[in-house]
Amino acid sequence: MKKLFLGLVLFLAGITAMAQNSLSGKVVDAQSGDALIGASVWTENLGKGTVTDEKGNFTLAKLPAGGLELRVSYLGFETFRKVITIPTTENLEIALVGKEFLTEEFIVSSTRASEHTPTTFTNVDKSEIAKRNLGQDIPILLNFTPSVVSYSDAGAGVGYTGMRIRGSDQTRINATVNGIPMNDAESHGVFWVNMPDFASSVDNVQIQRGVGTSTNGAATFGASLNFQTDTHQDDPYAQIDNSFGSFNTWRHTVKAGTGLLNDHFAVDARLSKITSDGYVDRAFSDLSSWFVSGGYYGEKSVIKLIAFSGKEQTYQSWWGLPESKLEDDRTWNYYTYDNETDNYQQDHYQMIYTGKVGTNWKTNLALHYTYGRGYYEQYREDDDFANYGLPPVEIGDEVIESTDIIRRRWLDNDFYGFVGSVNYVSDNGMLDFVLGGGANRYDGDHFGEIIWARVAGDTDIRDRYYDNNAVKDDRNIYAKATYEAKPGLNLFGDLQVRGIDYSFAGVNDDGRIVDGQESYTFFNPKFGLSYEKGNQTWYASYAVANREPTRSDFTDNPITEVPRPERLNNIEAGIRAKAGRFRYNANFYYMDYTDQLILTGQINDVGAYIRENVASSYRAGIELDGTFQLSPAWTFGGNIALSQNKIKEFTEYVDDYSGEDFRQESFTYTDTDIAFSPNVVGSAIVEWKPVKRLSINWMSKYVGQQFLDNTANDGRALDAFFTNDLRISYSAQPRFFKGLELNLLINNFFNEMYEPNGYTFSYFVPGEGNAGKDLVTENYYYPQAGTNFLLGLSLKF
């Protein structure tokens, strides 16, 4: 008993001694003396560590007595190593020396706005993305940024998702990755489902609202998203992220990197798998992706090779939910065929070079290639042979004109080209000049196959019932300059010329021959100024953007009546400010459209609905956002956008089936709201850190009423909604792990029943109303899940 007691005393004494030993310090830039936030502090022999706080400070607690092998690293700086004897009363100040090589920060510098740029933008860094990322798509992760409304077809944030910024939909939001365009050349959209878990390979993203700066790709027409992929790390690492949640949602991600090899080389890789049953019946998602990058980092140049791919299979839920089922059957799905799926894979390859030429010049060049292919499969009951260019089938005396079929509609496309720029900065730093541009080609095949028919007739498996090809060449050149006219006053100019040649030929999916060619030349000037005084930056700008019609605008309209290009004149003015623990942005915008394209109900000669130009429309609003750190434990943040979004005059066409012959009635409206453009969008985030490693966040989102069409009819609208999410994050640094993070996200905490997206159509039928007919309106909605959760565990090695 004496020995046992003595041993227990010695053990407790050892634990007590360990608990009493700690090491504190501060990490700074040796040249400037500025604190380095987020520097990695690691003990080689103990396998534990931490990162520096917002003042560059760190503390390592519960250290055993003896020698401590300390390693401190930060991107772009030499790694610091030192053996320290514990216990010690020394309070270290570690000054890291910058490395003599370029970093990835120059890769997208020509497309990014800076604090001097007179435009409206929001930056979201890797740490913010990581806190929210449990496998959801990009639009869901950016949901709490200013003026954003996001939605999900399957209702759970995985699969087909989308977003609008200031009411501008995905086709008007320009997306680039490392300066390389991501928007589909024909539809102008970005299909985030083809980039599953891409957020896990993103270092930061800048959201520009309005026209923004010139970009290397399709013209921005409302907003832009500029992604920079992961930068290299100095030290080797590995990371495993796993999460699961409601609707059988699972995410598995593995990341690893070599660190900097021989002071010049680094390789990073990621592999991801995401599955979900979806909130809507049968709306499952089966997604996989990978990402690999390798780089050479020299004193005057960086060369990076990047490849990433996404493969998806999703069960269709794009029909939506009819209004009649909104109250008691919110998960209803129109589709029942077991393979009513979308299947697509997209591979991206990028080679990026950036370098210094002398002391004043930098260059940036990127070559890229994207290969996309896939189809969606459909079961069609009792479909006419004539729809597929096939004759009726005669069996004996019976003539069969329709049958059940299964078809696949394919896309097979290549997109390739280059983007580049040269950047000159004067010796005194007063002039920053960029000359850049790019040339890209899209070559896409569109075709449909019959893979099964109940009555086959004169068909073979995979008969192509339509087949056409499109080629689009897109070129642009721009000159962008910022000049400091006097201390604090910066003048900005950005001139872009963009040329487009688009041709298409073959049989369309509705059986028509569509052969055509169009060319455009657009001049997109931008001017502005910014004034910096203390911690405030005031700015104002005027910008012009032009945008060509989409593929369907060409193919669905008669070639002789192709819609005119859209034009946007954009005014932005605002202030960015810091005052102690308070940061805020406030801005006013006015977006004046000429010839904006909208759906009016007008149909073409085969009954397809087409978009038409409306002469004049506008968006005007005020956006406010900010954060306030009340104390080390409490931080408050939020944003609100108040706007008016109007079409001055347009004509609606309504199908009329009330008589013997089909026709359309027309109605003219003035000063109506633009569809899907709420007058109020706001969010708020409250963060509480009761202890050092525990963070509790309450996140609220309000979106005002949205109209489903442009008639401002309350009977064709999405109700306003207010959602609340709870996120609990806990981090630890157990022995032999660089970090452990546990995240619990409870979405829609109060079980709000809401729909952020939908569509509508109306028609006349025989009835007792005026002129013996009644108007029928059918609304369809995309309901989002009620209360649901995601739980994630991240291990860093």
Automatic annotation (TrEMBL):
It comes from the Bacteria. Keywords: Cell outer membrane, Ion transport, Iron, Iron transport, Membrane, Receptor, Signal, TonB box, Transmembrane, Transmembrane beta strand, Transport. It is a multi-pass membrane protein. InterPro entries: Beta-barrel_TonB (IPR000531), Beta-barrel_TonB_sf (IPR036942), CarboxyPept-like_regulatory (IPR008969), Plug_dom (IPR012910), Plug_dom_sf (IPR037066), TonB-dep_rcpt-like (IPR039426). Residues 1-19 form the signal peptide. Belongs to the TonB-dependent receptor family. This is TonB-dependent receptor. It comes from Algoriphagus jejuensis.
